[in-house]
Design a protein that fits this description.
Elements (H helix, E strand, L loop, with lengths): L2 H72 L2 H8 L3 H19 L3 E6 L5 E4 L15 H9 L4 E5 L7 E11 L2 E11 L1 H15 L3 E8 L3 H6 L4 E3 L2 E3 L3 H12 L1 E3 L3 E3 L3 E4 L2 E13 L5 E10 L1 H52 L4 E5 L4 E4 L1 H7 L4 H7 L17 E2 L2 E2 H7 L6 E5 L5 E12 L7 E9 L1 H49 L5 H29 L5 E5 H18 L3 E5 L7 E5 L2 H20 L5 E9 L2 E8 L29 H12 L3 E6 L4 E8 L3
Parallel strand pairs: 22-24
Antiparallel strand pairs: 1-2, 1-5, 3-4, 4-5, 6-8, 6-13, 7-8, 9-10, 11-12, 12-13, 14-15, 14-20, 16-17, 18-19, 19-20, 21-23, 24-25, 25-27, 26-27
């Protein structure tokens, strides 16, 4: 990474932080605007619930008081006597103490009104001087109660004062069966409104208004609609303090059969009000709704408090962002020199490596270490790139080695798609000498962007190792061939002996004139069968030692049987029982070099045979089985020879390691088995000790 790139990264980081701060600030602004609406909405719900609760509580108190008072008064005979005699003065004196108590308790206008059967007023305790006026058809609740001689309750205004919306209850008065009239008791609802305003203001520290609206079409609307304030299809008691709010409400209101608002938030004279249509229903004596209550709350202080919080919360990310910007600038400045020093050190470390290290995207060489330039004989990377855009251009054609393209697939992706395989390439140096390298690859993907992907590749020179490996292979093959010749001798001994006996028999019978044509044909057939067996043994040996490295598809069970046929007679001679648990019903197809896997199986069984002979087991056994699971074929070869010593186990696959006498073993059999399984077959080989002895496991990947 150069200085310009580092500066570019610093600038990108600063811009990113600035954008993050701007986005956070924008979201905070949006969130706080949304929060304002949520605050007001939550406030409205909270206040609506509080108003409903307080109103219901006080209204229940009014109802209980009215019904209790009415029932108490109607039980007094003196009151009935005064009504019957129309003795207003006596009735007034009797009821005045009770009336004063009610007025004091509620601190409000109390209606206590006696009506005669002809609808005339006998006595108004709340206005003693008005009486004998006839209220027929003027007071629906009273008229209904007199006509039906029963009790009714509901909201109704009086004749003279619209502001006094009163909850009224009528009580019919009887002396025996004689109907004397009705008692009307009512309490002005302004009492409740005052309590609601007081309690809401105490808890929320702001002005509140509770306004009752009377619906068009009711008796009250007809009586007072001409000179009261109007809003939509409703009238209300005019008040200069709330008129401007009510007028604004009308513009935001949709009037149908009930009170509806387009917007519950009203802005008037630089103040913000919450308008709530309460659940309180104004019901008359016929159980019809004559109007609604609206609640108006001054939410200006709530919004101001939220704005203060908003500005303080917005300032925090801005201040934090400025501090972060300054801090990052200082960090880049402070560590810039250190970073460059570290980069130089890293470059020196890379350049001192003997392996060739390159940075590439697969098609183009992006960077490299000094060893690569020295290998090709170039002074600079640019000089190399003038001739080669990619190191893959220098790959030499070599059988089985990696090329730039294989079956149309770019070399880099071929390595990626088969990560467990050991890939080799042949490359000529500046002196045109061919070298063999293995490829170690690490892939890096920037932000999951394939176009910005790159690979760090290490090429390790294994030319000398390859020569050593070839020597090992030759030594291993010679050792194996010695063992094979011994096995062939075992295989040939019996057929040759049989042929010798048959030939002697022909000569004897011919000399003694005992040989006829049929017998001669039978003896000739037996000789042919034995020579055929000798020929098959030669074919098996040829397949085993052939140097053809072409991979072919073979049945795994057939490969195992081929190896067992070679070694079986040697096991029989030493009285070793071979237990074959191979499943032959489901054929397993594998792709490999003919003879390689057979060599591994023979090597392992030979080792097991030697271990059994050395341990002098009374009933020596070797068991072989095959298991298929998750596209892996596992061949298990187990003996009962006592196992492998723990200090020897880690070394058994090392070259030239053997526990046998030097005249009996070279120590190459298991090492070559390991190389065949891991490198040629891309599998695994390992050994474990069991209760009986040693178990070798060969894990080979197979196709579906």
């Amino acid at each position: 990474m150069n200085k310009q790139k580092l500066i570019r990264i610093r600038n990108e980081v600063l811009i990113l932080i600035f954008l993050v701060i701007a986005i956070i600030g924008g979201f905070r602004t949006y969130d706080d605007c949304k929060r304002n609406d949520e605050i007001l909405s939550n406030k409205e719900k909270q206040l609506k619930a509080q108003v409903d609760f307080i109103y219901s509580l006080e209204f229940d108190k009014i109802q209980q008081t009215i019904y209790s008072s009415g029932n108490i008064l109607l039980d007094q005979l003196e009151i009935k006597k005064c009504i019957k005699n129309k003795d207003r003065e006596s009735l007034y004196k009797i009821l005045l103490p009770h009336y004063n108590t009610l007025t004091t308790n509620f601190n409000s206008n109390i209606i206590m009104h006696f009506h005669l059967p002809n609808h005339d007023t006998l006595l108004r305790l709340h206005n003693k001087n008005i009486y004998n006026d006839n209220l027929h058809d003027k007071r629906p609740l009273v008229t209904k109660s007199i006509i039906n001689k029963t009790s009714y309750a509901g909201f109704e205004h009086g004749l003279y004062d619209f502001e006094k919306l009163t909850y009224r209850v009528t009580f019919p008065i009887f002396e025996n069966d004689l109907f004397l009239g009705i008692l009307e008791i009512g309490i002005d609802t302004s009492y409740i409104e005052k309590i609601v305003k007081k309690q809401i203001k105490e808890t929320n520290k702001a002005d509140v208004f509770l306004v009752h609206l009377i619906k068009k079409g009711t008796n009250n609307f007809s009586s007072f609609g001409d000179y009261k304030g109007k809003v939509g299809n409703y009238i209300y008691s005019k008040d200069s303090q709330i008129d401007s709010i009510i007028n604004k409400i009308e513009k935001e209101m949709v009037t149908k059969d009930r009170l509806l608002f387009k917007n519950n938030i009203i802005h008037v004279n630089n103040k913000t009000y919450i308008v709530s249509n309460q659940n309180i229903k104004l019901i008359d004596a016929d159980q019809k709704q004559i109007g609604d209550y609206i609640f108006i709350f001054d939410a200006t202080n709530d919004l101001k408090a939220n704005q203060i919080f908003f500005y303080s919360s917005l300032a925090k990310p801005i201040v934090a962002g400025i501090i972060i910007l300054l801090l990052i600038t200082w960090i880049f400045k402070y560590f810039f020199k250190q970073f460059l020093i570290m980069e130089k050190r890293a470059r020196k470390i890379l350049d001192t490596q003997s392996s060739l290290i390159i940075l590439t995207n697969g098609n183009e060489l992006l960077d490299c270490n000094g060893a690569l330039l020295q290998f090709y004989g170039f002074e600079t990377l640019d000089a190399f790139k003038e001739l080669h855009s990619c190191i893959c251009d220098t790959f030499e054609p070599f059988d089985g080695f990696l090329q730039k393209y294989t079956d149309g697939e770019l070399w880099i992706y071929r390595v990626l798609n088969q990560p467990n395989k050991i890939w080799k390439v042949a490359i000529k140096d500046k002196d045109k000498i061919k070298h063999i390298f293995t490829i170690n690859l690490n892939s890096y993907n920037t932000d999951n962007n394939e176009e910005d992907s790159y690979f760090v590749i290490t090429l390790v020179n294994i030319s000398e190792m390859e020569k050593a490996n070839k020597l090992l292979i030759e030594q291993s093959k010679q050792a194996s061939m010695g063992e094979m010749i011994g096995n062939i001798a075992h295989q040939w001994r019996q057929p040759l002996s049989t042929i010798s006996v048959l030939a002697s028999s022909i000569q004897f019978k011919y000399e003694n004139d005992m040989l006829d044509k049929d017998e001669l044909i039978k003896i000739a057939d037996k000789i042919t069968q034995n020579t055929k067996h000798l020929s098959e043994t030669i074919d098996t040996f040829r397949n085993y030692i052939r140097d053809d490295k072409e991979k072919v598809n073979l049945v795994l069970q057939d490969i195992i049987d081929s190896a067992l046929n070679i070694i079986l007679l040697a096991l029989t001679d030493h009285k070793i029982t071979l237990i074959n648990k191979i499943n032959y019903n489901e054929k397993v197809l594998v792709n490999l070099v003919k003879g390689e896997l057979s060599q591994v199986i023979i090597n392992i069984i030979n080792n097991a045979k030697d271990a059994l002979i050395a341990s002098k087991q009374e009933h020596p056994e070797i068991e072989i089985s095959l298991e298929i699971k998750n596209h892996i074929a596992t061949i298990m070869i187990e003996d009962n020879g006592g196992g492998i010593a723990n200090d020897i186990m880690p070394k058994i696959f090392e070259p030239y390691f053997t526990t046998k006498h030097k005249s009996q073993g070279t120590g190459l059999g298991l090492h070559m088995s390991y190389k065949i399984i891991t490198e040629s077959l891309n599998g695994k080989i390992y050994a474990v000790n069991t209760d009986k002895g040693a178990r070798f496991l060969l894990e080979i990947p197979i196709e579906n």
